[in-house]
Amino acid sequence: MSSAISLSVTPRNRTPRFARHSIPSCRKHSQRPGMAASKIIDISTPLDDDTPAYPGDIRFHREVIASFDESGEGYQLSKLALSAHSGTHIDAPAHFLPKGKTIDQIPARRWLSTAVVIDLTQVDEVTAGDLEGQGIRTGDAVLLKANTHRSADSDPDDFCAITLDAANYLASRKVNLVGIDALSIETYSDPAWPVHKKLLRNNILIMEGLRLAHVKPGRYTLIATPLFITGGDGAPARALLVQRG
């Protein structure tokens, strides 16, 4: 969903649209002696003029307003135009709830979480039955790999999203966050946005616009750091998965 700092819009994204950005190589970082190496996987969508945007929202744009001279002296400076929901982003409760917390009011501990990536590319919509038996634990970030198989020229309104009964199930599991590889966690069919409201009313954060094509199902640690915007109903975020070796 969306709020703005300034912009335009593109149809909802398919995984392929997110996936057309090159995927940075996963890096293994050595830990202290005796600790297993960990692999860092970037699941964020790069922000550029081709980044998909929610229908009716502002499209990301970067304008260079100062640059080096021919001798290499000076500096470069850019101006950004974007929405609070550009690219990979997190919806705060204030996005749909009049008295909901804004992004700056959410405790920092929420941005570091155990996570489970679930492959649901074989379903057309995510139901509670699809989530049962997937090892979802209280406090998890549940990341749904559901749209990586869709082609870039697919109908932008035709994407896999979660149903209200799935949202009810996630609320019953008391998860920390739900993320998906699409521009919205739910379809555009109901202007009342029941899925968003169900999750946010149950203190479940929403992360949209993920890139998960290169991620295997399983358990990880999620680091998701949104911009610290005072009063923000959401914010773009850098999302990383840590996989222990």
| Whole-number mean pLDDT | 88
User: Separation of termini?
Assistant: 36 Å
Query: Over all CA atoms, what is the radius of gyration?
Result: 18 Å
Number of strands: 11
Task: Summarize, please.
With 245 residues, the protein is an alpha+beta fold. The protein is built from 4 helices and 11 strands, in the order H-E-E-E-E-E-E-H-E-H-E-H-E-E-E.
Structure description:
The chain has 245 residues and is α+β, with helices and mostly antiparallel strands. The protein has a single domain, classed as Putative cyclase (Glucose Oxidase, domain 1, 3-Layer(bba) Sandwich). The chain has helices at residues 15-19, 128-131, 164-172, 194-201, and strands at 27-29, 38-42, 61-66, 77-81, 89-91, 112-119, 141-145, 177-180, 205-208, 218-226, 234-244. The strands form two sheets. A seven-stranded mixed beta barrel has the order 5-9-8-7-6-10-11. Strand 10 and strand 11 form a beta hairpin. Helix 3 runs parallel beside helix 4 (194-201). The model is unreliable at 5-17 (pLDDT under 50).
Topology:
Elements (H helix, E strand, L loop, with lengths): L14 H5 L7 E3 L8 E5 L18 E6 L10 E5 L7 E3 L20 E8 L8 H4 L9 E5 L18 H9 L4 E4 L13 H8 L3 E4 L9 E9 L7 E11 L1
Primary descriptors:
11 strands, 11% helix, Glucose Oxidase, domain 1, globular, 4 helices, 7-stranded mixed barrel, two-stranded antiparallel sheet, 245 residues, alpha+beta
